[in-house]
Backbone:
């Protein structure tokens, strides 16, 4: 059986695409690719990085405490589980 | 409805609304209607800190070197922060506790307010170090017109809710004449007052506080007043959590996930609530005018601060479902993020080597391999 992929293609609406490692949080991957996403706490409790997830799945590395709507994710504390399509507020 | 400190009636907190249901009886957390509040409590307690742990002695030297306009900015900002935390250290307890119906929310509010009292104590810690007698600073908070003007707006919604709740709890629903003034008290009106008050609290913690943080960190960017900035970082981390909690409450209401009346009120009072935010923004801009009336400082002036107010207001309003009203797109103070990052917060000097220090972290799962390099 093939090992699980170590990175996924992320489609950032209006910005472009990037490869995000499953080792890094999505926020770190975005930053590595030069996408200047908003952030404050980087620990999932402030909600500053709140991002719309249009398609795909993510897994949280820490329980998000900030309010997120059903179609939103907190990139600072999640990793991709599949290719994603996201709309990042810049 | 009369308030009781231990409601003898059997209630099911899993079906109670957050506010204006039955008073809480047993403080139990094994079952929760809104588990988020228990999580916030845990997080907040893990943040525990004491002002005395932060060394502010070097600030005194820095302060003497500041220009007069800079001293005005620094001290006025500190006065404003002292006002905000004076209000927050008591008001959530007095306004919300008598009307809360969920044990986890009750304890969250108490935990939240307690941390605001740590903030208040830290302002005394900072000022005592800067002045041999800080009385003049504290006394001015109550007489300074610029500060009084915003104090009036901040406390208005709290006072309104507290007074109406007192009437409701002593006299019940109906029209009550007090000192020649008639007050219409019913649960729907009370809930409206609560909704507006919660919006005002959110505007306070999510916008007003951040304007003051920006001023503090502008000094730290120039390597000035770093002890003070270290304390304000800890305060900012707490405030981040507090504003998350009021965002949760507002969103739970608006999405009909708690009390159907509140969902209706959220729709009905949308414009009024929005006006609270717009007013706060306007007041913060006027405050910026006052701060920089004698001159700017390196890296910060009235225009930048006003842009930041608009930027942060956009973010915060978007978070609770309002259309962002301002043009500003990007963060005019990108360095703010470095100060707001939780991982960069350092409490005691001995922790300087450990970036993420957690109190009470005990790992009880020990693997056999952990003893591999252990010899007797």
Residues:
């Amino acid at each position: 059986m093939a090992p699980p992929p170590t990175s996924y293609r992320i489609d950032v609406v209006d910005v472009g695409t990037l490869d995000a490692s499953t080792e890094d949080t999505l926020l770190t991957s975005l930053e590595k690719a030069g996408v200047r996403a908003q952030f404050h706490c980087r620990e999932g409790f402030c909600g500053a990085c709140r991002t719309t997830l249009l398609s795909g799945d993510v897994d949280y590395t820490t329980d998000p405490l900030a309010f997120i709507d059903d179609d939103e994710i907190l990139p600072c504390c999640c990793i991709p589980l599949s290719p994603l399509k996201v709309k990042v507020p810049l | 409805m009369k308030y009781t400190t231990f409601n003898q009636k059997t209630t099911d907190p899993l079906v109670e609304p957050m506010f204006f249901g039955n008073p809480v009886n047993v403080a139990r957390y094994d079952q929760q209607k809104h588990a988020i509040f228990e999580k916030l409590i845990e997080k907040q307690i893990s943040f525990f800190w004491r002002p005395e742990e932060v060394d502010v002695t070097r600030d005194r030297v820095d302060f003497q070197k500041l220009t007069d306009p800079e001293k005005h900015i620094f001290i006025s900002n500190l006065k404003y922060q002292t006002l905000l935390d004076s209000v927050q250290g008591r008001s959530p307890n007095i306004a919300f506790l008598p009307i809360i119906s969920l044990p986890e929310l009750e304890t969250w509010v108490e935990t939240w307010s307690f941390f605001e009292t740590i903030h208040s104590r830290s302002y005394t810690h900072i000022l005592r170090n800067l002045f041999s007698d800080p009385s003049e600073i504290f006394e001015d908070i109550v007489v300074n017109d610029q500060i009084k003007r915003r104090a009036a707006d901040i406390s208005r919604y709290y006072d309104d809710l507290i007074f109406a709740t007192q009437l409701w709890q002593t006299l019940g629903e109906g029209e009550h004449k007090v000192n020649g003034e008639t007050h219409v008290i019913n649960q729907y009106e009370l809930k409206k007052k609560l909704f507006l008050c919660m919006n005002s609290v959110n505007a306070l913690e999510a916008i007003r506080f951040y304007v003051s943080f920006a001023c503090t960190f502008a000094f730290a960017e120039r390597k000035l007043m770093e002890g003070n900035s270290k304390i304000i970082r800890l305060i900012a981390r707490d405030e981040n959590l507090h504003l998350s909690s009021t965002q949760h409450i507002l969103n739970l209401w608006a999405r009909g996930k708690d009390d159907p009346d509140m969902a209706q009120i959220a729709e009905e009072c949308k414009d009024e609530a929005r006006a609270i935010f717009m007013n706060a923004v306007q007041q913060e801009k006027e405050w910026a005018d006052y701060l920089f009336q004698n001159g700017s400082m390196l890296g910060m002036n009235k225009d930048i601060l006003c842009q930041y107010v608009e930027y942060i207001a956009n973010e915060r309003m978007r978070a609770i479902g309002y259309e962002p009203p301002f043009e500003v797109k990007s963060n005019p103070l990108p360095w703010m993020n470095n100060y707001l990052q939780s991982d960069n917060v350092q409490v005691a000097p001995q922790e300087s080597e450990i970036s993420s220090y957690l109190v009470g972290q005990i790992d009880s799962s020990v693997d056999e391999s952990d003893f591999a390099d252990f010899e007797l």
User: Anything to note?
Assistant: Residues 26-32 of chain A form the longest helix (7 residues). Chain A touches chain B through 19 residues (CB under 8 Å). Residues 21 and 90 of chain A are 21 Å apart (CA to CA). The beta strands of chain A are 7-12, 16-21, 51-55, 58-60, 72-73, 78-80, 84-87.
